[in-house]
Write a structure and sequence with these properties.
CATH superfamily: Gcn5-related N-acetyltransferase (GNAT)
Distance between the termini: 26 Å
Bound molecules: coenzyme A
Number of domains: 1
Oligomer: single chain
Helix content: 25-40%
Structural class: alpha+beta
CATH topology: Aminopeptidase
Strand content: 25-35%
Number of strands: 7
CATH architecture: 3-Layer(aba) Sandwich
Shape: globular
Largest sheet: 7 strands, mixed
Number of helices: 4
Length: 149
């Protein structure tokens, strides 16, 4: 099995990211009535790095890293539904940390969905409120977490 975490490089990559998010994160179950924006300014912002986790050349996961202070905010982490709980999410997190360290980042933050808190705890993340303003919007039900890298 060969993994690669790579930044989006083509329209097909963007489409793969949207597809994985739509079947994993932006489902009607999780966000009833939500209309997903394929050109959201938070995604088109060049400083926000968008990634696909490739397994043997096939996209199976995605995430985004938004630089902030001495580190970055990890957003929209997802592994395709049929491949969850097989270790791929842990690999995604480890490869993302390699990327962040190589760019001098010292710490990461994220908003964990309540059902994903256990996953992050296993990987050494701890709860810490890092931006109360995010609770008033999309991160309303999330647990804010952080990890030194
Ligand atoms: C959360 C997610 C990214 C984790 O990726 P994954 O490939 O399923 O996780 P892994 O298989 O690498 O799991 C690593 C460890 O965390 C545990 N784990 C995984 N998901 C978990 C969860 N939801 N709750 C508690 N523990 C979890 C695994 O059992 C495993 O433990 P082990 O090492 O003792 O076996 C993935 O399940 C996912 O995309 N879920 C739906 C979307 C989502 O919630 N994204 C996070 C938004 S903040």
């Amino acid at each position: 099995m060969t993994y690669q975490l790579r930044e989006l490089a083509s329209p097909d990559d963007w489409e793969a990211m949207h597809r994985i998010r739509l079947e994993t994160l932006f489902t009607q179950e999780r966000h009833p009535g939500l209309v997903y924006d394929r050109a959201h300014p938070d995604d088109t912002e060049p400083a926000h790095r968008k990634f696909l986790l490739m397994l043997d050349g096939v996209p199976i996961g995605t995430t985004r890293l938004d630089p902030r202070d001495e580190g970055g905010i990890l957003r929209l982490v997802a592994i395709v539904p049929g491949l969850q709980r097989q270790g791929h999410g842990s690999v995604l997190e480890a490869l993302l940390i390699d990327y962040a360290r190589a760019r001098g980042m010292k710490r990461l933050w994220l908003n964990a969905a309540p059902e994903a808190v256990g996953f992050y705890e296993k990987l050494g993340w701890t709860p810490q409120v890092w931006d109360e303003e995010e609770f008033v919007s999309f991160a309303r039900d999330c647990v804010q977490m952080t990890k030194p890298i």
